[in-house]
Amino acid sequence: MSVNQKRALRRSKSNRILAGVCGGLAEFFGISSFWFRLAMIIALIPGGVPGILIYLILWIVIPSE
């Protein structure tokens, strides 16, 4: 990717388990999707609501590829 090329935040179609949110974030930031999935699992631990709410908001806000 050249310096002048802008990366767009998109939900991944190839690196997905549910909706491609973690895969899209990983592609955007250039790191493994494992770390975003781990963060979502950690966010699910305190009762589930924070993690589910964050994921649903990102699913709605981030457009698909």
Overview of the molecule:
With 65 residues, the chain is an all-alpha fold. The chain is 52% helix and 0% strand. The protein is built from three helices and no strands. Helix 1 crosses helix 2 (33-44) and helix 2 crosses helix 3 (49-61). The two termini are 17 Å apart. The mean pLDDT is 86.
Relevant terms:
65 residues; mainly alpha; 3 helices; globular
Percent range of helical residues = 40-55%
Strand content: under 5%
Number of helices: 3
Write down the overall mean pLDDT: 86
Structural class: mainly alpha
Weakly predicted, low-confidence segments: none
Task: Report how far apart the termini are.
Answer: 17 Å
Largest sheet: none
Order of helices and strands: HHH
Overall outline = globular
DSSP summary, beta strand count: 0
CA-based gyration radius: 12 Å
Record the SSE blueprint.
Layout: H1 21-29, H2 33-44, H3 49-61
Helix pairs in contact: 1-2, 2-3
Q: Could you provide a short overview of the structure?
A:
By secondary structure, the protein is mainly alpha-helical. Helices cover 52% and strands 0% of the residues.
